[in-house]
């Protein structure tokens, strides 16, 4: 028997994206979603859904299939390229085998048939929550890995960053943070498309693995930035490794082999301020501020003192 109160307790703080072009269907589904979720972002087609997905962080995605501008499966494919671990529930009035097989190939987690009744919906939510809670090692690893670069993703960063911060504070260790921004990635994607862009990002990730130590944590963010946590690294060390990254990327033929122009990067970084940073988010904001100054100015790299 499904414990609805327990499910609501588990889902109430989750943020979901719901994509549906038909207002009548959207209103009916929202009445069910609001029974379980407090934070719901609505999109009216696949293009709108993809845009909103890139602007925030979600725990679940619910989407219709047949929509204007971009259908739900294409949107799901692109979302999975950004975040392979995000659970997606496809909602459709169709029982088309090809659509079902395509959904499976895309890694869609659940498939709901319209019209949706409360029992069907509750069962699906219960199954999803149970699967997420199981924490099977393979699925957990996949949840924390960026699909393109095979580096850790933002979910992993959220999971471990405060532990690194607390450890540095407790033992008064140095802790460095670096953000590498692919400054002209939109130009690359516009001219060459996503396949070439993904190949280039994979090569950047491969190069970064060769530069950083085994104990450093490399993160690929949703905004096409690379974020590196460097234990036992002071501000001088952050500055030195930033210079090495800049030189290595600029001189890499593998990264540039499919491009007719140079890859432009911007780098921001800092060391944890043990006296004034109250959380890792404070350190992260200082690194982001340094990156913003690099983007707005002429220097490739800005390291906050």
Structure description:
The protein is α/β, with parallel strands linked by helices and about 300 residues long. It has 2 domains: about 5-145, 3-Layer(aba) Sandwich (Rossmann fold); about 155-305, Reverse transcriptase/Diguanylate cyclase domain (Alpha-Beta Plaits). About 50% of the residues lie in helices and about 15% in strands. The protein is built from 13 helices and 10 strands. The protein has helices at about 5-10, 25-35, 45-55, 70-80, 95-105, 120-135, 135-145, 155-170, 185-190, 195-210, 235-250, 255, 280-295; strands spanning about 15-20, 40-45, 60-65, 90, 110-115, 175-180, 215-220, 225-230, 265-270, 300-305. The strands form 2 sheets. Strands 2-1-3-4-5 form a 5-stranded parallel sheet, with helices on both faces. A 5-stranded mixed sheet has the order 7-8-6-9-10, with helices on both faces. Helix 5 links the parallel strand 4 and strand 5 (about 110-115). Helix 9 packs across helix 10. It is globular, with a radius of gyration of 21 Å.
List the helices and strands and how they pair.
Elements: H1 4-11, E1 15-19, H2 23-33, E2 39-43, H3 46-55, E3 60-64, H4 72-82, E4 88-92, H5 97-105, E5 110-113, H6 118-134, H7 137-143, H8 154-171, E6 175-182, H9 185-192, H10 194-211, E7 217-220, E8 225-231, H11 235-250, H12 253-256, E9 265-271, H13 280-296, E10 301-303
Parallel strand pairs: 1-2, 1-3, 3-4, 4-5, 9-10
Antiparallel strand pairs: 6-8, 6-9, 7-8
Helix pairs in contact: 1-6, 3-4, 9-10, 10-11
